[in-house]
Each structure stands twice: as C-alpha cells, then as structure tokens.
Design a protein that fits this description.
- 6% of the residues lie in helices and 45% in strands.
- It has 3 helices and 36 strands.
- By secondary structure, the protein is mainly beta.
- The longest helix has 19 residues.
C-alpha cells in the first residue's frame, strides 16, 4: 500500500521570511520620524530672538472725566448705615476752560440705584465760575469735551463749614487715624460709578499690628451703589486705625466720614478723613486750622515688615525746620500705627506769627502713610496729605473750590523746587469774577499762607513752569466748623496703552 501524504489541519503558521526581505514596523517609523519633525519645527522658531521693545502708552488729549463726591454727613453708629439718607449738602464744581464741553451730575439717592447713573442732570458751569449740585447723597460727576481736563469739585455739608475734595474713582487708597469705638467712630463709604460690580478688600492696622477683620475682606459694590461700612459695628476697636482699601475689581469712589461724640454728652461733630493714595518715604501735609493752642497729633502707619524711623520738619516761610524737640523722631513698628504729639512745637511756631508754620513734612526710612489731626471732640479736623502733580499728564495747574459762607479762607502753598519761584494765584467768585490776582513768591522748599477775599468760590494756582512741584491746600471756616481741602491738578492728558502683536 502506498503511503499517503498527510496535510496539516487547524491554525496556519506564518511562512518563513524570504531571504533579503524585511517588514517595516510602524512603531519604529513613528519613533524616528516624529522627533525629527518636532526638531525641524523648533528650529524654524527663532528661540531667543530679540523681542520688539515695549511700546510706551500713547498720550491723548483728555475728553472725558469722572469724579465721585461722597454723601454729606452720614452718621456712624446706626443699625443700617446703607439705608441712612444724609442731610442736605452741596457739591461745588468748576471746569478748566471755555469750549464745547458739558458736565452732568447723578445723585445716587438710594442703595443699588443703577438707574440713577442714567438720570443725569446738566450742571455745566460758566467758564471760570462754579456750579452747584444741591444734594446730600453721593454724586457722580462726568465731564465731556472741553469740560473734562479741568473738572474739579468739592463736597460740603449744609453749613458749608465741613468739606472734602471730590476724587477720581480709584483702585485703592489709605486712611490713618480712623476710629472704631464709642467716642470716635468712622463710616467708610464706597461708591461704584461704573457698570458692573466692583470688589474691595480692606486691611486694618492698629497700635499693636494688623487687625483680623474677616467681615471686610471682600466687599462687593454693585453698579451705581454706595456701600457704607460702620467700622465701630464691624470691627469695634479702641485707639487709632489705619485702613487700606484695595479695589481688586473695577474702581470705586472712596471716602471716610468720622463722627466725634464725647462720652460726657457734649456736642459732637463730623469731619472727613484725608485719603492717601499710597505709602511713601516723603509726605507733605498742609493746613493747620485752629489757634496756636489747638491740639495737634501726627499719626503714622507702617505697612512694611520691619520697623522704620520717621522724622518731622515744620514747613514755613524759611523752608523746612526741625526743632530740637523732634530730633529723636518717631519709631513705628512693622504693620502698626504710632502717634506723635506736635501740640507744643506747632503751637510755638504758630505763636510767632508771620506764617511761622503752614504744615509738616514727614520723611521715613521706608514707605509709610501719615496724617495730621488738629483739635479734639466736636472741633476735630485733619490736614491734607498732598501728592506730587504728575507732569506727564497734567498742566501743573491746581484748582480748589469753596462754598458760600465758608468763613475765613486761606490758601496754603508749599514749593519743593530747589530755588525761588513765583506762583500766580487767581481767586474768583461763583460767577467767575476775578477777586484777587497775585504772584506768591516761594523760596527753596518754603511754604506761604495767603488770605483770600470774602466771596471767593474758586482758586486757581498755575505755576509758570509745570515742572515745578507746588503743593496747595485751602483752610476754610473756623472753630468746630473748619476744614482743609486739597487743590486738585488739571489733568489734560490720558495715557492709553498701545497694543502690539505677540509674534513678530
């Protein structure tokens, strides 16, 4: 029997590879080709190639401006400070030059009144004169066209004796010397003039250091809303407080009204605290209301993490002077508030007459916030901390507004120029009539005081050289109804950021 060939059944095996033929594995291809492609792409990009230089902001003529004036006389110590409607008050305003421009006013009479921003009244004053808004509520002023560059305003209570300068809404600021107790309390007022919510974070400091205040770590202010925060209710504290308002979203009008209510039941009073833009190593504080015997206290906050020494010079017609009694200066602990009694040293200077003192200059080893308090009880008020005029966006001119019936009116000038300068001063009535026109001579680093005529409603200070650093303040009223107001610079230019392409 012949032998049969048996064929394999089931799963086949791969045939042996033929000599000279190799199969290419796709994984090997990917492992070799992809890194090569990436390397070529990286080589095509100019790694480390020089980038185009940063483009400076473009200077454009200012055609719009916004100011926020706080409400008048909102009392502290209430259960619902947001719901308090203040007593009557006035806002005085002025513009810079003649031309096609307008000013509108929006009183924010109710909390969260976004519709009030749309309900704006035309309050454009005559060129060189002043206009007035009769409202005790927070007021938003908007200047357009030729009225924008020189827009200035001030808030006064019904008596006209207590006032404060209206400010451009900002992203932060500092107060030092606020109270949060029974005898001295403070209401912090935040106003949002823009569409959309704004958010602020508050940091507080006292004589011992930072104050834990979770209630004010995040304060939301809606469109057209005015939030009032009674510090005595939120963070009751004895002694003097420094408060930093940091606006983390949007921008806000920021103000603080202090109420002094003596524990013996005698008549109390109110005053606005001066807002300081930022800590600095050199601070000029102008305006000394009251008499030679008036109590004076310097308050300094040190937001840094190391102690710092503060020195104090008196400002007068002969330039800065440091009395021997102030030779030791003041040492301020980190994150704390300290005070220095200047009653005697300023009293002696004021008693000399002839403008013996017009303010103080504070210099520190690190950036601090400083304020000067004058008087006590119902007669307490604060001097103003002046700021350098930004010469890149301003003309160098300064403007101040006064109410009717303000009593005594004094202009305080201080020059930081190295040599003598002549500063033109013009005082006008509410109708724009010139009441006084005079050049005030200021020596190197000196200060001077000028009495203003009765009926003065507006003061313009215009250094002939805009690069000369001149500071100015107005002292109004007398006794327990006195105020110190800062003159504001005429901002003529807006710096607009210039966009550039990310890839060149």
């Amino acid at each position: 029997m012949s032998e049969e060939q048996v064929r394999p059944t089931g799963r086949r095996r791969a045939a042996p590879a033929q000599p000279g033929r190799r199969r290419i594995d796709p994984a090997i291809v990917a492992a070799v080709v992809l890194p090569l492609l990436v390397a070529l792409a990286v080589a095509a990009v100019r790694v480390g190639a020089p980038q185009p230089p940063a483009t400076a902001p473009t200077a454009e003529a200012r055609t719009s401006a916004t100011l926020v004036c706080p409400s008048a006389g909102v009392l502290a110590g209430t259960d619902e400070p947001d719901a308090v409607v203040p007593e009557s008050g006035v806002v005085r305003l002025g513009t810079g030059a003649e031309g096609d421009g307008s000013v509108t006013a929006s009183p924010l009479d109710t909390p969260a009144a976004a519709e009030d921003l749309e309900d704006a009244a035309d309050v454009t004053p005559a060129a060189g004169g002043t206009g007035q808004v009769d409202s005790g509520a927070a007021v938003v002023l908007r200047g357009a066209g030729a009225a924008a560059p020189g827009l200035a305003a001030a808030r006064f209570d019904a008596s006209g004796g207590i006032g404060t300068t209206c400010r451009t809404p900002d992203v932060g600021g500092w107060f030092v010397g606020l109270g949060a107790g029974g005898e001295r309390s403070s209401v912090l007022e935040l106003t949002n003039p823009d569409p959309g919510s704004a958010v602020a974070r508050l940091s507080l400091y006292d004589e011992s250091g930072p104050v834990d205040a979770p209630e004010v770590r995040s304060v939301v202010v809606g469109t057209g809303e005015t939030r009032r925060l009674d510090l005595a209710e939120l963070v009751p504290t004895l002694g003097d407080l420094a408060v930093h308002v940091d606006v983390t979203r949007g921008r806000l009008g920021i103000a603080a009204l202090q109420t002094m209510q003596p524990l013996d039941g005698s008549r109390g009073g109110t005053t606005w605290a001066p807002l300081v833009a930022e800590p600095t190593t050199a601070t000029t504080i102008l305006g000394l209301p009251g008499a030679a015997t008036t109590a004076r206290t310097l308050l300094v906050a040190n937001p840094g993490d190391a102690q710092t020494r503060v020195d104090v010079d008196l400002l007068g017609p002969s330039g800065p002077v440091r009395p021997t009694s102030l030779a030791d200066g003041l040492v301020v602990a980190p994150g704390a508030v300290a005070s220095l009694d200047l009653t005697d040293v300023l009293g002696e200077a004021l008693a000399e007459g002839g403008g013996g003192a017009s303010g103080v200059r504070v210099t520190a080893g690190s950036a601090v916030v400083a304020s000067l308090r004058s008087g006590s009880g119902a007669g307490e008020t604060s001097s103003v901390t002046t700021a350098e005029v930004p010469t890149d966006v301003a003309s160098g001119a300064l403007t101040g507004l006064l109410p009717e019936g303000a009593g005594a009116r004094r202009l305080v000038l201080d020059s930081l120029a190295p040599g003598e300068v002549a500063v033109p001063v013009v005082a006008r009535s509410a109708a724009g009539d010139v009441l006084l026109e005079q050049d005030v001579a200021l020596g190197a680093g000196s200060a001077a005081t000028l009495d203003l005529p009765e009926g003065t409603a507006r003061v313009d200070v215009a250094p002939t050289d805009p690069r000369v650093d001149v500071r100015a303040a107005l002292v109004t009223g007398s006794g327990s109804r006195a105020s110190v107001l800062a003159l504001v610079p005429t901002i003529t230019t807006d710096l607009v950021p210039t966009a550039r392409r990310a890839w060149q």
